[in-house]
Amino acid sequence: MAKPYLPAQPAPRVIHYADPGNPTSGLAPLSNRELAIKRQRDRVLYARWVARQAQIAERDRKVRRFWLGFGIVAGLTVVAVIAGAVVAVASLGLGLILAIPAVLLLLGGLAVGGHKCVTVVQHWH
What's the whole-model pTM score? Predict the structure, then answer.
């Protein structure tokens, strides 16, 4: 199978613009030596940034894993307390009729407790 003819492409032209907000950049173009030094410095800074992002991602994974485990334990504890309350009320001989309102009161107390944060989302056109 023959390859289609592709005309030769010129090498890409790199254009560096001086940053007017950076007083150290100046308006004079960088020499080849200065440009090589700047590029090396940028490579070092980028490598540091990549390493830092990896550290942050690892720390975030550990924190998420901890809080997920903590939430599972807390949730199972709440379910066990509710089940224990149902069993305790039912074993008192008051029957399941009183156990249901007790569980609802317990769940209502859990839902109402805590901070009173209200999230407001406003959509603008």
Answer: 0.43
Please give the chain's pLDDT, 125 residues, in tens. Answer: 556 666 777 888 877 776 766 666 555 677 889 889 999 999 999 999 999 999 999 999 999 899 888 888 888 888 888 888 777 777 776 666 666 776 777 776 655 555 556 566 666 65
For 26-50, b/e burial (b = at least 16 CB within 10 A) is eeeeeeeeeeeeeeeeeeeeeeeee
Cβ within 8 Å of residue 28, ≥6 positions away:
18
Query: What span, in angstroms and rounded, lies between the C-alpha atoms of 85 and 75?
Result: 15
Helices (runs of H) and strands (runs of E) counted in the chain: 2, 0
